[in-house]
Amino acid sequence: MSMLKYLIGLMLDGGVILGNKYLYDKKTVCPVCKKEFTYTKVRSSQLKVEERERDFYTKYKDGINPFFYEVIVCPNCGYAALESEFDRITNDKKEKILSLVTAKWVKREFSGERTPQKALEAYLLALYCSQIKEDKPIVFAKTCLRIAWIYRILNDKVNEEKYLKYALDSYIKAYSGSDIYEEEEVLLIYMIAELNRMLGNREEALKWYNKVINHPDRSRYNLIVNLARDGWQSLKE
After folding, report:
1. pLDDT digits 0-9 by tens, 78-110
2. Domain count, the chain
3. Which of 108, 136, 168 is where one domain is finished?
4. What pLDDT, on the 0 to 100 scale, is given for residue 45?
5. How many whole angstroms separate alpha carbon 192 and alpha carbon 209?
6. Partner of 179 for a Cys bridge, out of 15, 35, 123, 136, CB 3.0 to 4.6 A?
């Protein structure tokens, strides 16, 4: 892609070019305080995978971590959420955010390039807001897993394991609850298996891996089924 086409692509996306070639800024309006602000996104088309771990933490070339930017934080009121959940908030929960978060909030920016520490701050804030909103377990699971990834990057094994356990508990609740989507079931079961393996729960991991391998829809999920087979085999060796 030529530089001209790259710049045009950014402008068509509604973004403002930053110093880092993978990042660009967009504007949005906070659903809680109704103020406009800027947040930073990643141009996924520019990314090149270096390594992907079995819980789907992915390392990219040039040291970029796209998931650092999956949380949007309003700098004005402190409301934070995964991008997919940002606008999903009811009026009564908005009032709770204003009372429990905004009332104590010190205005600060989260746009621009994020360090692991800045990403961690954004995710912990999103987790707190998620608790206030009483989000579905799958949202907690995804948030806690990504917090564990940040602690992995920071080589903090204790907190990584802590949030892997939180993620596992939430994935199990999601599987047992009414918010499960059929197309996500195989992935959900796999994550329960894999997190059990990572946390040393051998028998539980084997049980859940088997659920993936023998799932009625396994033919539609070759990648996940192969990962489950690898995980199962690693525990049997």
Report:
1. 999 999 999 999 999 999 999 999 999 999 999
2. 2
3. 168
4. 85
5. 8
6. 136
